Amino acid sequence: MKMHFISKILSTKILVLKLKKFKFSCNNGSAIGRRCICISGYSGTRCNRVMHCKFNEIRSNGSCFDCSNGWKGTKCDLIQCIHGVPDAIGQNCICEKPYSGQFCESLETSDVYSYYNHKVYKLGPIGALLILPLVTILYGCERTAQSRRIKRVEEHLSGQNIIVNRNKISTFLTTKAKNASNQ
After folding, report:
1. CA 148 to mean position of chain CA atoms
2. Which InterPro entries does this UniProt record tie to the protein (predicted)?
3. What is the pLDDT of residues 55-77, one digit of tens each?
4. What is the pTM of this model?
5. Which string of DSSP letters, residue by residue, matches 58-127?
């Protein structure tokens, strides 16, 4: 039990020594203990966030009077992404496809073409697989309709005691339909 207690004390002392060796750093400011004092125009726990105050006007408490376009927050250090989301730091946008630009506000023609061409490349085969059955059904309906037309004419002529040749009726109806479509 005593040995366990001694090992805990030693490990705690080693941890304290390691923490003392670790130098706390600030990107755009100076460290006082474990806290950063940022130079004007920067914010964040490590002074790593650029403030985007309109006309660089900063209040005495370090906040901005007004933000430049595309920025928000009391220190104007949070980006507003129109068609996207801010990155982990909140200073850059991760844009949705096909948008680009600092605030994901731009649509370049080449980006749009590339985006939709890629979609067609991925979804094209699915579209083809959906169209083929529809074409087959349409073809079947056309054949059935033609067969019914021939049968109706055949029944009508048979009712008038006229000898009917099914092949002649079929030829007559198809040539009549072709002539009507050409005019």
Report:
1. 51
2. EGF (IPR000742)
3. 988 888 888 999 999 999 999 99
4. 0.48
5. B-TTS-BSSBPTTEESTTS-EE--TTEEE-SSSSSEEEPTTEESTTS-EE-HHHHHHHHHHHHHHHHHHH
